[in-house]
Write a structure and sequence with these properties.
Layout: E1 7-17, H1 22-32, E2 37-47, E3 49-55, E4 65-70, E5 74-84, E6 90-100, E7 103-107, E8 114-127, E9 131-135, E10 141-145
Antiparallel strand pairs: 1-8, 2-5, 2-8, 3-4, 5-6, 6-7, 9-10
């Protein structure tokens, strides 16, 4: 285990509109506000999702993922972290519970997700955290403290 400490800085509230891309919009807002580290909370409606729901083989590197796709409108509650990668690009890592009726889906919707009707996002800046998302053998950009 590794950890570091910091503090909470500014708060950004975002309203996404129908068809806004969820990941890109959250990353864009954080980037525009000059955030280097943060946490994001999202609630609302989504559609056109491609959700990573686990690895095909947990011991294989790089990982190959199992993906569930949907196009219809569903409900979402998600939480994620925001850090820049080694190239300075803002990267969101979010996991979410997405569902409709009795069909829940939980995973990482990084492969695609659009807003349906409305999505409300709160981004909290984390200050004093010196970290980046660095490429690892898994094929993913994972959190690395500097």
């Amino acid at each position: 285990m590794e950890y570091t400490t910091g503090a909470v800085g500014k708060c950004i509230c975002v309203r996404l509109h129908e068809n806004d891309p969820v990941y890109a919009s959250i990353q864009e807002a954080a980037d525009k506000e000059g955030i280097d580290a943060g946490v994001a909370f999202a609630i609302g409606g989504v559609k056109n999702g491609a959700v990573v729901v686990g690895p095909i083989d947990q011991d294989e590197r790089p990982l190959r993922t199992t993906v569930e796709k949907f196009s219809d409108a569903r409900e979402l509650v998600g939480v994620g972290t925001l850090f820049r990668n080694e190239e300075g690009e803002m990267k969101l890592h979010m996991h979410a519970s997405i569902g409709k009726g009795t069909a829940p889906l939980v995973g990482c919707p990084r492969l695609g997700l659009d807003c349906w009707l409305v999505n409300e996002v709160v981004i909290l800046e984390l200050t004093g955290i010196n970290a980046v998302r660095a490429k690892e053998a898994s094929g993913l950009e994972l959190l690395k403290f500097l």
